[in-house]
Specification:
The chain is α+β, with helices and mostly antiparallel strands and about 220 residues long. It is about 25% helix and about 35% strand.
Length: about 220
């Protein structure tokens, strides 16, 4: 009985360890000392989502899985940041991550950066995020700043060609270039029937998913 309890105790310790921001996937120099969302005089957040209450599954190149409770994507640092129970913020080591299931999305490490899967299958398109600073208003007479600069998070799409990611603008012309002639007419018919637009990202995903189902 005592041996069984000891075994159960150690199994519990291992299970809890797997759910922590594990040392073997955290960057050695990734401790964030000052995590102010923005620099002095710049409003807005550098994080992709407002909430940290997100459970993510991190898969390593060895297909080892970790469940992390408090995680967010820092667009400025271009990496995921995990929050420990003590409130410390640590960046993940990109080299030790294969992909992350995060907020109903999958972020793959391609090269040394994270890209969100946009369309996976016959046509592989990925999404990346980047940070821009929008200048505040300036008084034309005094040249004094009337409002602070502000961070804004933007995104762009990339088409996978072989092993390379090429920036891709999702115009109707560019999208239909990806389709075979035999299936293009079926896609057009489906778009018309479902009233789908390529300009809307969610609807574009539906269009690409539909294309992948065609035989």
């Amino acid at each position: 009985m005592r041996i069984s309890l000891i075994i159960i105790f150690f199994i519990g310790l291992l299970a809890r360890a797997q759910n922590l921001p594990a040392v073997d996937i955290v960057s050695e120099s990734g401790f964030i000392v000052n995590d102010a969302n923005s620099e002095l005089g710049i409003e807005g957040s550098v994080y992709l989502n407002e909430s940290w209450d997100t459970v993510a599954e991190v898969i390593t190149p060895e297909d080892k899985s970790y469940s992390i409770k408090a995680i967010n994507y820092n667009v400025k640092l271009e990496t995921f940041v995990v929050k420990s129970e003590e409130g410390k913020l640590l960046t993940l080591n990109n080299e030790k991550v294969k992909y992350i299931k995060y907020n109903s999305s999958i972020f793959e490490v391609i090269g040394d950066k994270y890209f969100e899967q946009f369309s996976k299958g016959e046509i592989n398109i990925f999404k990346s995020y980047y940070l821009v600073t929008i200048s505040g208003a300036i008084d034309p007479m005094t040249k004094d700043k009337l409002t602070n600069d502000k961070y804004a998070i933007k995104s762009k799409l990339h088409l996978m060609e072989g092993d390379d990611l090429i920036e891709f603008k999702p115009t109707k012309k560019n999208i239909f270039k990806l389709f075979s002639k035999e299936k293009a007419s079926m896609v057009k018919s489906h778009m018309k029937k479902q009233n789908l637009s390529i300009r809307d990202e969610d609807e574009l995903k539906q269009i690409l998913n539909y294309y992948s189902t065609l035989k």
